[in-house]
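Structure (tokenized):
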């Protein structure tokens, strides 16, 4: 069978990077084996019962149950099974069509409200108002559609789409077939470098090690065996005779039978669990709460204005149009566009820092994040094994031990594993000069019974030296002496405890430890296993997946900015504790997957708040920790790059991955780092906070102004014999004010506003509205008094003068007060707006002064204002700014905003 694309053998990349995630194939969900119950209806992450059953059966029984044999399936049988099970593909989130994407964007309460008002305005003959609102909606929807489509396109290009094949036995002959054509019952051959093509049970095995890092976070491969599983394991990846789809063979060979494929695999259940609608993030929830708050104000305000004007003026048509204009004026119609432009600017700024923003709303969540949960392997660590220590039996560094270990790894002819390569990659080791002085005579290969290996070399003095390296507990059994400071001592019971303590100390620090021993074989040119006795213990070589050089600095910077960091890993607690120590995190208290399994959500939420390190976690555990932290009110980010991280990436307010991550991780992420420098995290957090600060500026200004206008409009409607402002004037005022706020997304942000996380707080916004909003009404009413009693506007014939006076005062106060509300400092002196915002403020104020004398004045119902009006207006503006600044400072001291 062939496919049009060029194919390659399923050669694995580190931790599954580049694993192809094909089209959506979602079968009915099956019973969960180890999924954690939550309040979500998402499919559980589980291992198929068929796989668990296969692990316990002997090989002959299993083959009978799967209706297959060592000769494999026939081609016709395989094709029949393929029709029943479908292709070997896992679930992937459906790509949105352009129409679906637009419909999703406009499914927003404020966009719907603006669209409705636009239609009503058009039907009732107010085409200008309808056009303004339609333009706002189009700009907002268009910007968001363009940015998200562009980000998705960039993310698609990151995916390394690899067309892989597997070696399958069919019709008693081995052949290469595309991965998607595998079916349950297929017999497969596995060798070093192969990707596991399904959930398979081993039938025969020889020294096979499988890299499961993409699922568990472990840096080192694990050994697998073909014997039936006897012990019940707490995690599916600990099953010794089962290999899972998406993992890869590090070394060794095996034959196996495919038990499940596609969506029925463990990987498939993970992929299925992350498809579908996302839970609303804190940003979406906060924005929706604010929108509904403003709609509630309108629901009260607009009918009141309509009824009061209808009953007092007896002009129900005029009252309707005025109420409609008030509805438009109260609507923060620029909010969708301001939010979209703020987020787009943030995405553009982050792209310069090599961060792809897949979902715009995630930028603010990044800034509002107060807890960052991160996987360990590949994110905090370099995802490679490095020789960290080479020491004598007392734990002191020893070049002699390094030399012995190096000679063993260099001269052994078997497949060099990760530990061998780590020794051979040791920097500043002058290998060539040394190797020329040694000659290899013989070797004893590694096997999993002895758990050690030996090489026989001739040293520069012509002596035959047997060098042995292996698991410390096994090497100890073959040693009778140990060497320390050039002296030999017997390994009697008195010394054994101390010797074991030395390597146990290394192990407890998270190192993978091997012991090195030697023996002189005088005159021998060959050796055998029988020679591996009466050895002299020289010391230990210790390995670790080291932290990235920027990890500690990045985490310290996040802590400085108020972000608590927690480690969620599938790796063992000792290694995890060591990494935490190296990057400056306190590992206590620590929670293990087994502990989490027994906790209720309430207990877990309490413990998760305190814990820093979570180890031995399954994907379901990680997701559950994220959900309980969010339920406690935290804005949670998660950073990971493995298959096992995908559900947690999806559950977080903001999911962060890297370009070398597995495809399923990149699919689930909101942000993708193109540079592995973790300092980008700090820059991203600050950028997100700037975005949020500028969005909140608009919300505070628009909402407080609108709330103040409610009182002004209601009062004026009740006692004036005419409309306080013509509908066209209300709309013009609103349009000019909106224009003055267009530069807000690019406005400067005070350092204090980005120093700490600032999640949505609707109560804080309410307090700001309730205290700042009525201040504008105070000065509106002083303007009413001036117009009525100084300029004698009680007479309906002088209504245009009243309306012009209030229009100019309202526009000038609203536009100027931006500079007070945008900062917590003293405006103009301690904090200055951007030149663009300052420019639009001056331009709109100048335009407002000119408008009553302009050629457009008559069409808009304006008349020239008397000379005395202008000094009174200056006093009004000064008083408004001073009082607003005073109330703002009082609210800050009370810590109410």
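Design, position by position:
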């Amino acid at each position: 069978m062939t496919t049009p694309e060029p194919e390659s053998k399923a050669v694995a990349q580190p931790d599954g990077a580049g694993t192809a995630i094909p089209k959506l194939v979602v079968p009915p969900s099956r019973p969960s084996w180890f999924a954690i119950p939550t309040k979500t209806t998402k499919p559980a992450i589980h291992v198929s019962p068929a796989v668990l059953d296969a692990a316990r059966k002997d090989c002959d029984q299993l083959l009978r149950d799967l209706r297959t044999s060592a000769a494999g399936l026939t081609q016709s049988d395989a094709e029949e099974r393929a029709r029943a099970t479908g292709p070997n593909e896992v679930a992937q989130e459906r790509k949105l069509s352009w129409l679906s994407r637009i419909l999703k964007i406009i499914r927003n309460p404020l966009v719907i409200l603006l669209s409705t008002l636009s239609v009503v305005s058009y039907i009732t003959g107010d085409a200008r108002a309808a056009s303004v609102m339609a333009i706002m909606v189009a700009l907002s929807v268009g910007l968001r559609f363009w940015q998200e489509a562009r980000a998705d396109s960039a993310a698609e290009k990151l995916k390394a789409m690899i067309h892989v094949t597997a070696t399958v036995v069919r019709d008693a002959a081995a052949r290469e077939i595309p991965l998607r054509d595998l079916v349950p019952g297929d017999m497969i051959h596995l060798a070093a470098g192969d990707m596991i093509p399904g959930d398979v049970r081993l039938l025969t095995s020889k020294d096979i090690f499988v890299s499961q890092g993409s699922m568990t976070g472990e840096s080192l491969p694990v050994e697998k065996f073909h014997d039936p599983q006897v012990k019940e394991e707490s995690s599916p990846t600990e099953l010794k005779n089962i290999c899972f789809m998406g993992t890869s063979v590090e070394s060794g060979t095996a034959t196996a039978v495919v038990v499940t494929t596609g969506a029925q695999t463990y990987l498939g259940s993970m992929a299925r669990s992350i498809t579908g609608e996302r839970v609303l993030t804190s940003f979406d929830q906060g924005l929706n709460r604010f929108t509904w708050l403003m709609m509630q104000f309108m629901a009260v305000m607009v009918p009141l204005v309509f009824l009061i004007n209808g009953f007092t003026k007896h002009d129900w048509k005029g009252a309707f149009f005025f109420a409609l204009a008030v509805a438009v004026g109260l609507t923060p119609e620029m909010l969708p566009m301001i939010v979209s432009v703020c987020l787009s600017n943030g995405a553009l700024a982050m792209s310069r820092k090599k961060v792809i923003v897949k979902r715009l709303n995630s930028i603010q969540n990044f800034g509002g994040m107060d807890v960052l949960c991160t996987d360990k392997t590949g994110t905090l660590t370099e995802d490679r094994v490095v020789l960290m220590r080479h020491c004598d039996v007392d734990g002191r560094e020893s070049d002699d031990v390094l030399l012995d270990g190096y000679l063993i790894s260099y001269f052994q002819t078997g497949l060099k594993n990760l530990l061998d390569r780590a020794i051979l990659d040791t920097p500043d080791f002058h290998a060539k000069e040394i190797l020329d002085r040694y000659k290899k005579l013989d070797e004893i290969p590694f096997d999993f019974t002895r758990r050690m290996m030996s090489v026989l070399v001739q040293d520069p003095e012509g002596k035959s030296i047997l060098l042995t390296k292996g698991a410390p507990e096994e090497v100890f059994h073959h040693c009778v002496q140990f060497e320390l400071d050039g002296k030999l001592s017997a390994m009697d019971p008195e010394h054994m405890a101390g010797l074991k303590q030395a390597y146990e100390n290394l192990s407890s620090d998270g190192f993978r430890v091997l012991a090195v021993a030697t023996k002189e074989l005088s005159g021998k040119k060959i050796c055998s296993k029988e020679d591996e006795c009466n050895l002299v213990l020289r010391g230990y070589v210790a390995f670790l997946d080291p932290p990235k050089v920027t990890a500690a600095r990045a985490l310290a910077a996040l802590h400085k900015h108020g972000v608590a960091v927690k480690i969620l890993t599938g790796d063992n607690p000792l290694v995890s504790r060591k990494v935490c120590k190296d990057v400056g995190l306190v590992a206590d208290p620590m929670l293990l997957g087994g502990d989490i399994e027994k906790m209720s959500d309430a207990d877990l939420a309490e413990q998760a708040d305190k814990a820093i390190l979570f180890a031995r976690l399954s994907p379901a555990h990680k997701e559950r920790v994220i959900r309980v932290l969010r339920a406690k009110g935290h804005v949670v980010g998660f950073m990971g790059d493995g298959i096992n991280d995908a559900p947690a990436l999806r559950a977080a307010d903001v999911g962060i991955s890297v370009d070398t991550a597995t495809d399923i991780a990149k699919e689930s992420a909101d942000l993708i780092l193109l540079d592995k420098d973790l300092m980008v995290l700090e820059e991203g957090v600050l950028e997100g906070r700037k975005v949020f600060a500028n969005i909140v500026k608009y919300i505070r200004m628009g909402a407080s102004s609108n709330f103040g206008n409610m009182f002004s409009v209601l009062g004026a409607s009740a006692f004036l014999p005419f409309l306080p402002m013509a509908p066209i004037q209300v709309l013009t005022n609103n349009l000019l004010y909106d224009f003055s706020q267009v530069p807000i997304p690019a406005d400067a942000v005070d350092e204090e506003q980005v120093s700490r996380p600032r999640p949505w707080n609707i109560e804080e916004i309410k307090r700001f509205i309730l205290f700042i909003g009525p201040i504008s009404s105070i000065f509106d009413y002083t303007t009413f008094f001036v117009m009525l009693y100084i300029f004698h506007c009680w007479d309906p014939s002088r209504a245009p003068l009243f309306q012009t006076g209030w229009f100019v005062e309202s526009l000038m106060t609203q536009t100027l007060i931006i500079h007070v509300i945008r900062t917590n400092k003293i405006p103009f002196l301690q904090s200055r707006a951007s030149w663009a915002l300052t420019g639009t403020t001056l331009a709109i104020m100048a335009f407002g002064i000119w408008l009553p004398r302009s050629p457009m004045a008559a069409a808009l119902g304006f008349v020239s204002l008397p000379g005395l009006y202008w000094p009174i207006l200056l006093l009004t503006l000064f008083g408004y700014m001073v009082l607003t600044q005073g109330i703002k400072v009082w609210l800050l001291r009370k810590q109410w905003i």
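Reviewer-requested clarification: The mean pLDDT is 81. The chain is about 45% helix and 15% strand.
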